[in-house]
TrEMBL record:
One of its GO terms (molecular function) is helicase activity. The keyword ATP-binding applies. It comes from Candidatus Uhrbacteria bacterium GW2011_GWC2_41_11. This is DEAD/DEAH box helicase domain protein. Residues 7-153 form the YprB ribonuclease H-like domain. It comes from the Bacteria. The keyword Hydrolase applies. The lineage of its organism: Bacteria, Candidatus Uhriibacteriota. InterPro entries: RNaseH-like_sf, RNaseH_sf, YprB_RNase_H-like_dom. SUPFAM superfamilies: Ribonuclease H-like. Keywords: ATP-binding, Helicase, Hydrolase, Nucleotide-binding.
Length: 191
């Protein structure tokens, strides 16, 4: 776990604003990251992404919630390589494989660790339009903290939780064994 990272992104716009589900048309406002290796939370603005790519290439597994379905496809628009080739743990993907359906991070977090997210992504888009980048950074890093707490709970107890439609707390068996990476990746250098 020492070189793993937890990641979440916020965007400047929505799919509705770009006319459909085209990840290439979404613009990143902030990427929030927790680095286990240095025990630090860092928020990167769009203009700072090259600094983030260098750190991610030296990191191990990237952990997130729906990162394969959202974060990575949006980030790939900015990146010379392919994030889908990075070692990763998509917590939503694991949940979907176990249950056969998808759950919101907020619902999993509330049932698993007792608290949820501090807001929702559409608020971050509005803050972007209002020029309130610090609010976006704080919100994004809060999402990273929640995702990190859910990951660590699953790692420790090999289970997460959710409430079914009757309000009953149900277990989600998971196996989040930490990955040990032996070699760093470098996709930003052309070959």
């Amino acid at each position: 776990m020492s070189n793993e990272v937890v990641l979440d992104i916020e965007t400047q716009n929505t799919f509705e604003e770009v006319g459909g589900y085209d990840h290439d048309k979404l613009r990143i406002s902030v990427v929030g990251v927790y680095f286990y290796e240095t025990d630090e939370f860092v928020a990167y603005e769009e203009k700072e992404l090259p600094l983030l790519w260098q750190r991610l290439e030296r990191s191990g597994r990237i952990i997130g919630y729906n990162i394969k379905g959202f974060d990575f496809p949006v980030m790939n628009h900015y990146y010379a390589g392919d994030f889908l080739k990075f070692p990763c743990l998509d917590i939503l993907e694991v949940i979907h494989q176990v249950l056969g359906f998808r759950l919101k991070l907020d619902d999993v977090a509330a049932a698993t660790i007792g608290y949820g997210k501090s807001g929702h992504g559409l608020q971050a888009v509005e803050w972007w339009k209002q020029g309130e980048v610090e609010k976006i950074k704080n919100y994004c890093l809060d999402d990273v903290r929640v995702t990190k707490a859910v990951y660590e709970y699953g790692l420790k107890y090999e289970a997460l939780a959710y409430k079914d439609r009757f309000g009953e707390r149900k277990a989600i068996p998971v196996h989040f064994e930490p990955m040990v990476q032996t070699q760093s990746i470098n996709f930003t250098m052309p070959f």
